[in-house]
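The following block was generated as part of the benchmark described in Methods. Ligand: fe (ii) ion.
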Amino acid sequence: MEKSIFSSDHHILVRMVSRLAMNEGTGEVMKSALLKLRRKMLLHFFREETYLFPSIQTFVSHAFVLGLLTEHAGMLRMIDKILAYIEKGDLERTSDRMTGLMRLLLVHCQREEREIYSVPELSGKIYEIDQKARKDRMPEGWKCAITAKYERR
Ligand SMILES: [Fe+2]
Ligand SMILES: [Fe+2]
């Protein structure tokens, strides 16, 4: 079966982060690669939070989904922190946090693949959801659920 858009997003994201974690290139090169990663990540989270998560509520617990949502906001915050370290020229923290981001992304993606993408009741459904997610554009200024929640406070 062909890979869903969600799985191929994971593949791309992991590849982008591992390149960055190898820490090649100058500050400017890293910065633009990170901004590209941030956009790609946000789009993936938009697809999951808008299309996938609402349709799996009967199969997985609320706590599980909440954990994933929290990690989405956490990873975006990590990228923002890394961008600030690059700006300051703090190479040690930059590479340290990149490794951290890599680790979190891997665990996050593996958990989604195992607990959601591969659930038999869902695997057929995922392709329907995939079609919708593929077509839709992310609205300008879209924020992931947990980020939006904390900004309202
Ligand atoms: Fe996710
Ligand atoms: Fe994901």
